[in-house]
Amino acid sequence: MIEINSNSLIEIDKPFKVFAGPGAGKTFWLINHTKNVLRNSKKLSSTAKIACITYTNIGVDEIQKRLENNGDRVYVSTIHNFLYKFIVKPYAFLLKDNEGNYIINLKNLDGHDEHIPNNKFIFKWKSLNNIGYIKEDERIYECLQNLDWSLNETNELDLNPRDIWRKKVGKYSIKSDYFYSYKQLYWHNGQIHHEDVLYFSYRIITEHPEIIKFIHLKFPYIFIDEFQDTNPLQTQIIKKIANSGTIIGVIGDSEQSIYKFQGAKRQDFLDFDLPNLEIYQINGNRRSTKAIIKLLDNLRNDKIAQTSIRQIEGVSPTIYSDNRLQVIQKLQISHPDLVILSRKNETVGQIKNSNNRVLGDLWTISRNLDSNFDRQRLLYNAIYAAELCLLGNYKDAARIASKIFYKFSNGNKINDTKKKELAISIIDYLISHKNNNLSKTILEFHNTLFENLSRNYQVTVGAKISKGAFKDFAQEKTYANLVQSLRIKDDTSNIKTIHKAKGAEFNNVLVVFDSSDELKYILESQKHQIDDDSRIYYVAFSRARDNLFLHVNEPISIENMNKLMLFGIKEGILTK
Amino acid sequence: MYISKIEIHNFRNFKNSTIEFNEGINCIIGHNNAGKTNLLKALSLIFNCNENRKLSIDDFYKKIDTTVYFEKEATGELKRQAPPKIRISAFITQSTGDKIDNEIVPDDNNTVYDWRIQTTPHYIAQLTFECFLPDGEDTKEYSECINKLISESNTTQTDFWALIKRKFIFKYISRIYCGNPALKNRADSDDLNRFDFQFLNAIRDVEKELFTGKNTLLKDVLRYFLDNSIDINTSLSDIQKNDEKNHVHSIFEQKSSDLIAHLKQRINTEPILKYSKDVGASLGGEPNFEGEVDEIEMFSTLRLIIEKELNIKLPATHNGLGYNNLIYISILLSKMQMSRSNYVSDDEKKIFPMLVIEEPEAHLHPSMQYKFLKFLKDNLKTKKEVRQVFITTHSTHITAAVELDEIICLNMINSDEFNIAYPGKVFDLTNETDKKSKAYVKRFLDATKSDMLFAQKVIFVEGIAEQLLIHCLANYMGKSLEDFHVAVINVNGRYFNHFLKLFDYLDTDPFKKNAIKRKVVCITDADPTQKDNTKPEPKFKKCYPFELDADLVNFEYKKLSEILNSLLVEFGSHALIKIESRTDGKGKTFEYELAQKNPTIEILLSDNIANKAELKDLIKAYKDNKTLSEMLVLLKSATIKNAIINSVWTNDLEKKAAIIAARYLQSIENTSDSGKGEHALNLDINLRENFQKGNPIGFEVPDYVINTINYVC
């Protein structure tokens, strides 16, 4: 292990692994290293590129911005987008079934999406496998939504729910063999899910090893940030590419691994090895004040203490237990750029909408009640797109909204240009009517939107809400409820989940606990290492540069408060 | 990698054609209007990033069967919902040639990365240009318009195209797809731009394009080569190079500012500036003149000149067109070198320079054509500034200079039928005879014989006499070989079979399908032979036709030569190749046949012929209806005399004509080689004179020659 700092230049033609704690300046280092390779590498011909891979689109934008004028020499992307663009999209034509047909309907293939089970497909799948007798659709839905690929002991790919207990629906257990036919229904439609991108990439490069050579020539260097959240399939793909000669560099901090629920395996990062791999460690924390670092050091399982580079003592992290809304209001006045982080999506929704309503996962409920998938897609994609647009993410907004449209009412296909046009109209309509719509029931909102589409654009999507359990639901819940329940993937707002704040830094951070019970993840962090619970709060706290605030919604026991004070946390009281 | 194939659908004169290319040089030949330029245009639509990809109605294949666009399904819907589209697919294949390990060139890989349709054992990438009416409201309107035409029963081809031209062609869009075109993935223009498509068209006005530093092409090149001598100086380090460049630049700066100061000093600015004072412009500040000039601006003052001898300088515009063309091409090559070098940004570096030249022979003397071709070949092989060359040509000198394998022959059989031939690929190299034939053709396909590749029809002949006379004989039949683009090729012997392989077309055979589909006739001598079995080690020797079957006890006979026989066996029933000879046992050679057919015609006797007096006597005797024995008295050849006496022929008139023919042939054969040529030449003159007079003496063309000419004309 070689100790370096964020300005150090390392040898460019050896694979590397860099351990870097929060605030170590690893993005800064990665940018410097990338520039160093660009300037000095003999392996980059005029068409070859460096791939910089990071975990979120926000991270991508950040690196892109900091690289400035690299022309096209650096390709910055998330792992899924990278694999999709350079393996799945160009080479999926190599994957054929026994009849010689493409496994994916390539004609309709257009990116990869979140897996939202389609009722129509579930129904079809059940009859295909003669399992119509399994009635608990909600459980089936949850089981299917949880599906993911994994490598088994013999290096074959299995498809099962991540939580294996979900296979059991009531008294029946769904056979693993059935899941594949479920996925096929999507693929035959040209739809693939995020997790399928890894699956197809792995298959393509395993069955057609020449592709690895092509990738190697195009990308003599691939650097991957946040590698502590890699999953085994991804690790295998990276290793295969490394074997072809591409210089692989991975960067991460196992203490910040928080995606176990999505199949991430932090041990993979610790174990990651390649021939000639150099291991580096960037010490120091150039982000936070000494007071915050003190708290952070106490939470690290590996007990590696970070030295403060800023050398500013700073204010001790402060914990509040007053009324949440009041705390937020007060802090927002004293710290206008305050970023609020919470573990649960539900909490984020409540804070965003300044209420304490417990809505549950409204979208899943809605989809379960409604057999009309097209209607659900219209609702979801339209509302989601409008919210993305309000956050400034126009590109994804347009992409998602255009997926609503397929055919005109008269049956004619809608071409791509027209789809884009319709997408923009619908987003525009939703944004300009948002204030009006917020208080409307889903029923009222949907049926107006439906009529508007068919009257003004000659497009029929789904159907009017007219009867059944879904009608009851739609009459009861409002547009505002649906917005509150949305999970936005690359949330750039100041209120978001901790997972979405990964890799980011903010001046002032308020971390909202869902219950005071969660304090145990801080107080007894050693006990909670198997799951990500403690690390999640470690990630949350380490986002803060200057001020860190905590909030629990119940009074803190004196015992707990004493313990907290040992970590350098002081109690805050709202002054009227 | 190299462009290995192009498929052209509905474009100009290509209905549906596939043309295969070689790595390296591709020499595209074909008669006028065969589509050579259109083929280059098709390549340009894909690979030339400066090409205007908007097409017009005239870019469509003219003979598209438009009736299908008026046909309806049982449901009343149109069978074709969209109007015709143009599609051109180019295939790019990994080079497999000289590299054993099949190493992939990184830049090639990265350029065609997502264009592939095959990945192993070698990759193939595909690009497809399509020009079509996009699906949507426009196609709906199109359907309505067609239905209207149907209801008005205006459904002719003209109606159809008029509609497209008036309402739809400007709504057509062009796209370049990569990979499987059905998937409609558009090719990235950055990747397409890696191809450097340098096109020199036939009608190039080099003077306009070049020769002053104002021209951007020349400017670019000059800029690139500015200080190039420092760059290529290997004894200097990078830092030293930079220092040296800065040094020479500062010298330039100093000198140019001196020059400007000098210039400024000579201008009396006062009167000019006075006005500005008067009108009040100077209130905003005192106007003055200032200026600087950099190297690039100074290029504008440079002109290309030609220094013929010491102190004689001519502007390039006064140079010959041919040389200027070469200069133009050389500057273009310099630019291509530049586009691949570090001088341009990595992102814009060209990785596949292709040179596309229409008729390089324009203004070039044959020997210069040869030199130019040799240069291109060397460049491809060693310097690699150009990676693939496409040239169209009408020059037999160029086809003679390139390899047989590099020739692609666009052959318009009739207005509907197209045949694309690859003369180098008709030979099955696992077969010894084919191997020999290929070597033979390569060896003897010189500039004169190359004509067989260009002409629409070919007559192969054995010798100089046929070659010279056949044109005139055609005239006697009221025909002209030139009008029908017939090439008469003298193979100087009987090795027709090697050349015939180039034309032995058979669509079901993997080799013969590459042959040129073209009418070909071989005129060959019957050359009967006999074998005297009483002699030790008997051999077949040439004989006269009237000797055949005379002594069946001691002799064996063949009325046709070995070669003619085998030709007849091989091509006797060929669809396009005809073998013509006199095969009834009465024929011998071309000259023999001329005389036998025209025993009374004295103009056959040229001044150079031996035994002229004797021949004249024989002709006179024949004319005067003298008996056979009377004629035999006049005959001074004992061989012929004995043969006639012993002949099994019964018709005296035939025998008399045979005497003249045999003695005539003998006399020609006794003259020297140059004499024979001269005889043929004189004979040609005599026959032409007679023809111009209206053939008063009644000269007749031998039957098999008539057949030959009728076949090709």
Could you characterize the architecture of this molecule?
The complex is a heterodimer of chains A (576) and B (713). Chain A is of the alpha/beta class and 576 residues long. In chain A, helix 3 crosses helix 7 and helix 7 packs parallel to helix 9. Chain A is globular, with a radius of gyration of 25 Å. The model of chain A has no long low-confidence stretch (mean pLDDT 92). Chain B has 713 residues and is of the alpha/beta class. Chain B has 26 helices and 22 strands. In chain B, strands 1, 2, 4, 5, 6, 7 and 8 form a 7-stranded antiparallel sheet that branches. In chain B, strands 9-12-13-3-14-15 form a 6-stranded mixed sheet, with helices on both faces. In chain B, helix 3 packs antiparallel against helix 4, helix 7 crosses helix 12 and helix 17 runs parallel beside helix 25. The two termini of chain B are 45 Å apart. Chains A and B meet through helix 3 and helix 8 of A and helix 2 of B.
Which helices and strands appear, and what pairs or packs with what?
The complex is a heterodimer of chains A (576) and B (713).
Chain A: E1 2-4, E2 16-20, H1 26-40, E3 50-54, H2 57-67, E4 74-78, H3 79-91, E5 112-113, H4 119-128, H5 137-145, E6 147-151, E7 157-161, E8 168-169, E9 172-173, H6 176-187, E10 192-193, H7 194-207, H8 210-218, E11 221-224, H9 232-243, E12 247-252, H10 266-271, E13 278-282, H11 290-299, E14 318-320, H12 324-334, E15 339-342, H13 345-352, H14 362-369, H15 373-390, H16 394-402, H17 416-432, H18 434-437, H19 442-456, H20 468-476, H21 479-485, E16 495-497, E17 506-512, H22 520-523, H23 533-541, E18 544-551, H24 558-566, E19 570-571
Parallel strand pairs in A: 1-13, 2-12, 2-13, 3-4, 3-11, 5-10, 11-12, 14-18, 14-19, 15-16, 15-17, 17-18
Antiparallel strand pairs in A: 6-7, 8-9
Helix pairs in contact in A: 3-7, 4-6, 7-9, 11-23, 15-16, 15-17, 16-17
Chain B: E1 2-11, E2 14-20, E3 24-29, H1 36-47, E4 86-93, H2 106-111, E5 116-118, E6 124-132, H3 137-151, H4 157-168, E7 173-178, E8 185-186, H5 189-192, E9 195-200, H6 206-209, H7 216-225, H8 228-231, H9 238-266, H10 270-279, H11 295-299, E10 305-309, E11 312-315, H12 321-340, E12 352-358, H13 366-383, E13 388-393, H14 396-401, E14 407-412, E15 418-421, H15 432-444, H16 451-454, E16 457-461, H17 464-476, E17 486-490, H18 496-500, E18 519-523, E19 529-532, E20 540-542, E21 555-558, H19 562-571, E22 577-580, H20 590-597, H21 612-623, H22 628-634, H23 638-646, H24 652-670, H25 673-692, H26 703-712
Parallel strand pairs in B: 3-13, 3-14, 9-12, 12-13, 16-17, 16-18, 18-22
Antiparallel strand pairs in B: 1-2, 1-4, 4-6, 5-6, 6-7, 7-8, 10-11, 14-15, 19-20, 19-21
Helix pairs in contact in B: 3-4, 7-12, 17-25, 20-24, 21-24
